[in-house]
Input
Amino acid sequence: MPTANVASPAVLPPANALAAVVHPNPYPYYQSLASQRPFDFDVSLGMWVAAGPQALAAVLRHPACGVRPVGARVPAALANGAAGDWFGALVRMNDGSAHAAMKPWIKARLATLHADGATLARLHDASQAACADAYLACGDSPTARLDDFVFRQPIYALAAWLGVAPPQWADVFDDVRKLVAAMAESAKPSPRADVLARGHSAASTLRARAMRWLDNDAVSGTWLHDTARSAARDDAIDYSVLTANVVGLFTQAHDACAGLVANSLRRLSQHEQHEQHEQHKQHAQHEQYGEAERNALPTPRPLATGRAMLPANLAVAISAVNEVIRHDPPIQNTRRFLHAPAVIGERTLARGDAILVVLAATPAATPAGASPDDVAWTFGHGAHACPGRSPASTIAALGVQAILDSGVEFSCVTHGTAYHPLGNVRIARFQGDAATS
Ligand code: HEM
Output
């Protein structure tokens, strides 16, 4: 079971599994949900909630459970536009033959991304560029810059890794943001027309870019170049679907990697705060005793200020990201929709029922029978499991390292408990947060 955050104020438990995503410490609630109501109907949400590991595995592997509601492959608000066309071609949003045609291919292509020395150097440069552009976009406020950086850096780093030329990174980021915003907007009861319009325009621009990258723009030896050659040799690959899914890699990375970076930074700052607290205690103890007793006490280490406690290296960043994957994961939920009546976990579900699959409620180490692998549930499970786990973890670690190396004063994020107001993704939010702690 994921453990509680280091600093967890005494607040009421979340009202339900959706409210848990932005709660300061949802993990005790998740634990009781998984043990007491592993698979049940939540009247307040109007959907089933799967929280126990067996229920999760059963839902995510059940052939009657689709990724989109019956008859709504594309959200109505996005239909009849470029964003809707793009959405409808994504592996993430399709089941059956459309999914089966593309998923293994994308998975195989992503598996060719290796984090060798040259790659790490490129990702480092991209992360530095994201730092500089976050500064340009947000000015002096360290919290505003961090909030910008955690979304920007993964897009720059992924672009660099795939072989997109640096002058395009900022524009790609702007368009990915608009497209992700339009997707989120389309799920609201009254979506704003201007947000949707910007999403359609961003989808057109990004797909045209992806086409150019694959046609002739990509430098020889890059992932994009090799992907284009591989697609040209494979008659089964639909070029238009391919460009949509290349864009889809960026939208998949946007929120999920931001959560990895932001939650890792928060976790590191909380550890630092904890360490400082312990050292203050040691100093206070030291002052209370006479000389003989003082000599018998451990010598206090110098008090750390700012980031001085944190070894500014990649190893620290990698271990923080790994901890977050297990203990404070970004993707907390996903959803499934019944395309046919089914009995799952001894419960009878009707066609059209919706299920909230609470990935964050399950332990990192899976129980026997659920899965043979070292599954980190935040990356999903079954047919739609994330094919980007390895590159995403590397990208996030480089992002965290860039901040550790940058000299940002960590105390500005230490006390925070705020999260971006999202339904499925837990992303620490720094700006305006100090006052809420
Ligand atoms: C470089 C960054 C990433 C890329 C390129 C990427 C790519 C993808 C793709 C293509 C899919 C669709 C797979 C399918 O439907 O068959 C997917 C699904 C998924 N990804 Fe990732 N991803 C990235 C980062 C992350 C991160 C950081 C997380 C969580 C920590 C994550 C969690 C998930 C989950 C949970 C799903 C499945 C959702 C479901 O089953 O409903 N991804 N990802």
